[in-house]
Design brief:
By secondary structure, the protein is of the alpha+beta class. The chain is about 35% helix and about 15% strand. The strands form two sheets. It has a three-stranded antiparallel β-sheet with strand order 2-1-3, with no helix packed on it. β4 and β5 form a beta hairpin. The termini are far apart.
Length: about 160
């Protein structure tokens, strides 16, 4: 009688072993996508970045125009959180952010999902009255749409 019970127990351990193998592969796959696995070189500045993106390292621009160009579906949770924190929930909607180290460190983590451009002011800084007439182009230019004012007509004396 002991043999049938022993067979059942052995079969139970074998079944449990297969389940544990399946669980071990899930744990192994999860550790591949943790933040600690990202190499530190990703977060360090590279010397060729300024030449690549057309910036001057001596006089950096003050404001970034950031646009999300790729989906966050299937991306890790920390990238989704950074995208949400930056206000880039909708694709192809530009957002303005300061060029400061705290923002730049977030941008480096999600740089493969976004486009970063400097804010260009071809017409200079707008005044308070002109702020309502400005718009941001897809190239990162803040354009002031100037309205023409009607000219007062003078009376013609005959």
């Amino acid at each position: 009688m002991a043999a049938p019970g022993g067979l059942r127990q052995a079969a139970a351990w074998q079944m449990l072993g297969k389940r544990m193998e399946g669980m071990a592969s899930v744990v192994w796959a999860r550790c591949l996508f943790t933040r600690s696995r990202i190499p530190d070189s990703v977060f360090q500045p590279r010397p060729g970045d300024h030449e690549k993106y057309g910036g001057d390292p001596e006089q950096p621009h003050k404001i970034h125009v950031i646009t999300r160009i790729k989906s966050v579906i299937g991306r890790p949770y920390w990238e989704k959180k950074i995208i949400k924190d930056l206000g880039l929930d909708k694709a192809h909607q530009p957002r303005l952010h300061k060029n400061i180290p705290s923002v730049n460190s977030k941008l480096k983590v999600v740089k493969h999902l976004i486009r970063i451009q400097p804010l260009k002011l071809p017409y200079g800084l707008p005044t308070e009255e002109e702020m309502s007439d400005t718009f941001l182009t897809s190239k990162g230019e803040l354009v002031i749409k100037r309205h023409l004012k009607p000219v007062e007509q003078k009376e013609i004396k005959s």
